[in-house]
Task: inverse folding
């Protein structure tokens, strides 16, 4: 009887030890799984998609006086340079997926140069003025904005009328003030780089 009691007691102890080991392993596995999954708070700071909008608008006589070139960089078309032939330009690249590793690059520049051989007509009034906009938006998995704004409205453009007899002295100044240096944003999973400056989400 004593022998059976000790055997039973040993079996109970063995089963208890095994249960403890399995319980400990299960707890470790749960901890590891939790550590591998981003917390809801962390997911708020991870980029899902990025979009960008590019726009140029100008007075109706600008292209008579100036050459206007727009360069854009976006994931869907790469780099593109266009010499404008109309008084407005717009382009959008929307909801591009942000993947890791790597980045999405959006950029825009505008080059305005006086048209070769142009001579103002002193008897004419020229409708001039030019404005441009480069806007972007980055959202997380919940489609909440991380940086940028939800859309782009009309460019705040104000045309001006310049008498032909006063235009010659102002052409170079207009070309310089209307040109836009390259504006560039690189979007990564957890941060973006705007014109060379890194900002974490």
Result:
């Amino acid at each position: 009887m004593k022998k059976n009691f000790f055997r039973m007691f040993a079996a109970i102890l063995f089963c208890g030890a095994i249960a403890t080991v399995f319980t400990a392993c299960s707890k470790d596995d749960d901890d590891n799984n939790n550590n591998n999954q981003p917390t809801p708070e962390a997911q708020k700071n991870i980029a899902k998609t990025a979009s960008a909008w590019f726009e140029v608008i100008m007075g109706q006589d600008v292209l008579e006086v100036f050459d206007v070139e727009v360069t854009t960089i976006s994931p869907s078309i790469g780099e593109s340079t266009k010499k404008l032939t109309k008084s407005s330009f717009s382009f959008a690249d929307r909801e591009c997926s942000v993947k890791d590793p790597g980045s999405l690059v959006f950029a825009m520049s505008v080059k305005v140069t006086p048209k070769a051989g142009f001579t103002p007509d002193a008897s004419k009034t020229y409708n001039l003025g030019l404005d441009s906009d480069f806007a972007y938006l980055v959202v997380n998995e919940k489609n909440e904005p991380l940086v940028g704004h939800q859309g782009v409205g009309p460019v705040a453009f104000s045309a001006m009328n310049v008498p032909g007899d006063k235009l010659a002295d102002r052409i170079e100044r207009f070309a310089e003030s209307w040109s836009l240096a390259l504006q560039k944003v690189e979007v990564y999973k957890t941060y973006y780089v705007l014109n060379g400056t890194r900002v974490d989400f």
Q: What stands out?
A: Residues 1-31 have pLDDT under 50 and may be disordered. The longest helix spans residues 2-36. The longest strand covers residues 47-58. The helical segments are 2-36, 40-43, 62-65, 164-167, 171-178.
